[in-house]
Amino acid sequence: MAAVLDHLALGTTTLTDGWELFGAVLGGTWVYGGDSPGFWWGQLKFAAGPKIELLTPAGGPGSDFLDRFLTAHGAGPHHFNFLVTSFDDTLARIRAIGLEPIGVNRSNPGWLEGFLHPRDAHGIVVQVAQQSGPPPPAPRPELPAPGAPARFELIEHHVTDLDRAIRLFRDVLDGQPAPASPDRPAGPGSAELTWPGGKRLRLVQEDGLPRGGALHHVRFARAEGTFSPQDHERASLLAKRLGLAVELAG
Prior knowledge:
By secondary structure, the protein is α/β, with parallel strands linked by helices.
């Protein structure tokens, strides 16, 4: 594959809510993170599925994009990240379907990146990046003890133009059509795409959405056993603070 879904990024001013939800309840473990101009980021991985990245403003030059997002929307989903094997080829494929990448940055040879505006990417920012090795090591934040391992099973994203969304996420970003799942059979109003490692995106047609789309919910399942009533209660509270709907399977 030339492109693989790597992570879902959330913007928040309160990192502890993210660490509690994705670490203490959902079993995510630290991957890496660090300071970037104007913001701090950190990633957690799960037993399967994409990673979660938390973004928080740090002030100063470079923080404008995240400050604007949080002022306009509050905490919530900010972008999908796709790691690509050839940055230039991916930009060419994007332009071939009539979209123009923004924020193209080649200043760091180890991290080439570009973005699609939410109006072009069905209501959410899409980041494409070519990474050459891991980022420099950075101090790990204070994290709660992780809960039992869980799989990040699904991102469900609703869109007003399903055909165009499929063209972007399947034809340009290499999502592979998935067979119908027990929880939702395939139909004319939806499509499910997968990438290696259990990464799964469900696109669902819904008319009248502002900006052409919105992330509907994410789903996690325990790698073994089930979530407790306390897990459900805690996850619901924390997810609400993070501007995200979270389904705990089983």
